[in-house]
Amino acid sequence: MGMVGTVGLVLHPQRDSRKAIDTILRWAGDKGATVIGLPDEVGRIDCTAVAVDTATLVDRADLLVGLGGDGTMLRTMRLIAGRPTPILGVNLGKLGFLAEIDVDELADTLSAIDAHAYTIEPRMAIRCSVSGVDVTAFNDIALVRIPGDGLAAVSVTPAGSPFVRYAADAVIVATSTGSTAYSFSAGGPIVSPRVEAVLVVAAAAHSSFNRALVLPADEDVTLHVLPTSGRLAVEVDGAVVAHLCPGESVTVTAWPGAAKVVRLGTTFYERARRKLRVGGSAEAD
């Protein structure tokens, strides 16, 4: 018996997902499976997917399919965080790090998953509480300066031991997944998602010490906004969720294995080389 009785859909808000959805519906019809999705997403497309609320989507889906790019995959991972449900990413546009296949490969991939012919790549998340709200990120949580409000002056305390004070445009706490996102643009290292590590990276640091920290997943890290800092935006996977003022702080903790991403043969290094256009020094040729 196949493993997929119910396919859950998570759609990009703008990209055309008609071909992908039609493929999923045809596959599900042949298998006697059900396709479900969120009302505001499947409702804008004339299709036979069943509209359900978020809780039902999470509870009923045997497989979640994110149709879009990395942003859609991050949202899908946050929806299902902490559950064993596998997540398949389908590219609708430019190549991403998290999506595994293109639309033309979708039917065969669904059959492979149904036959248990796939592997799982666990993805770690990070969490914190800010302004009384618990938030989860699979890329990063960043304290970011607001233009005109001064620099982000932030002290970094891993495992209860004060280590460094940064004055920067932003201080980013990233997962290994997020090492190729904001952290990378700020000069942080590329880290395989198989490594359960927490990165702390300052963007455009105004100090002689501008190195990234790499912390183990079992150590919390506290970011404290110093008196000399401006008001800071708190970004979770790129979205502003709150603001912090001098004297306030957040403590970020790791959540290993929070999401299960489907893999069918591609490697992280292949995806990273393509996405980042990694070549090398001409001197090495």
UniProtKB/TrEMBL annotation:
GO CC annotation: cytoplasm
Pfam family, one: NAD_kinase
GO molecular function: ATP binding; metal ion binding; NAD binding; NAD+ kinase activity
CC cofactor: a divalent metal cation
Active site: D70
Domain of life: Bacteria
Annotated compartments: Cytoplasm
Protein keywords: ATP-binding, Cytoplasm, Kinase, NAD, NADP, Nucleotide-binding, Transferase
Chain residues that bind NAD(+): D70, G71, R75, N139, D140, D169, T180, A181, Y182, S183, F184, S185, A204
The enzyme's E.C. designation: 2.7.1.23
Catalytic activity reported: NAD(+) + ATP = ADP + NADP(+) + H(+)
UniProt GO BP: NAD+ metabolic process; NADP+ biosynthetic process
Entry function: Involved in the regulation of the intracellular balance of NAD and NADP, and is a key enzyme in the biosynthesis of NADP. Catalyzes specifically the phosphorylation on 2'-hydroxyl of the adenosine moiety of NAD to yield NADP.
UniProt family annotation: Belongs to the NAD kinase family.
Record-given protein name: NAD kinase
Gene that specifies this protein: nadK
